[in-house]
Amino acid sequence: MKTIYIRKNASHFFKKGIALSLLIFAGLAAHATPSYAETSYSKGKISSSTAECAYTLSPASKSVGADAGAGVTITVTPTGTSCDAWTATVASNAGWITITSGRSGTGIGTVTYSYQANMSAAERRGTLTIANQTYAVTQAGRPLAADSYEGGAGGN
Hints:
It is built from one helix and twelve strands. By secondary structure, it is mainly beta.
């Protein structure tokens, strides 16, 4: 919270509201860029608190099978009043994931992605960065097929 103190005899300017807005902006501009401020005035001081923005991803992560998949959707929900535009990118550890829609947005939005089949027996993990949040995709490994043996009991 940023508090700006004013002279006691300046209070008559604040009845108009214009001087109040200018004073808050001028006082905060030197320290931060305000995008929203809840303001109060009492006893010779103005207090202003700027709201922050946070994003929620739903679901927060995903586990998928070894086969390829498409159309997986993540909902991006901002909370707060100073939310900027967001972007979605695939991390370098996830070349097997492709964002198919929703690479950027403002406000509530969706990101849709597809993923390639995992031909390895080992599980793999890849991440996407969406609105500065990490979204993890864990893909199961492919089960190993049992070797088959076709032969007779005769030894030839």
